[in-house]
Amino acid sequence: MAKRILVVDDSKLALTLARDALEREGYEVHTASSGIEANRIIFAPGKKPDLILLDIMMPMLNGDKVYEFFKRSELSRDIPVAIFSSIDEEELKRLVKKTGACGYIKKPFKPLELAREVKKILEI
Q: In this structure, are strands 4-8 and 81-85 parallel, antiparallel, or unpaired?
């Protein structure tokens, strides 16, 4: 069975590029443009992801607040979350340390690099 990835980002372009790159590698990919939409996917029967790629800079509810909600919920606290953002790499490293995220993927990304990073995260 294919690993399920949920990509949460307010950029339609980033969602499309990530979905296309990861589906080519055989992953089942779901996308959400907000934390609210992500919750609907996570809590839908049979849709729980094996990994969440979460953008930090989103309108209405920043990704760090969405991440806090995921980690407080009994249904999602065991899902690994990788920060998926274009912010400065040093800030990404700080956020990973602060939040306990399993890693980060810097945008913009090359499709093969994204697939390689996701594979590495899922093997941990």
A: unpaired
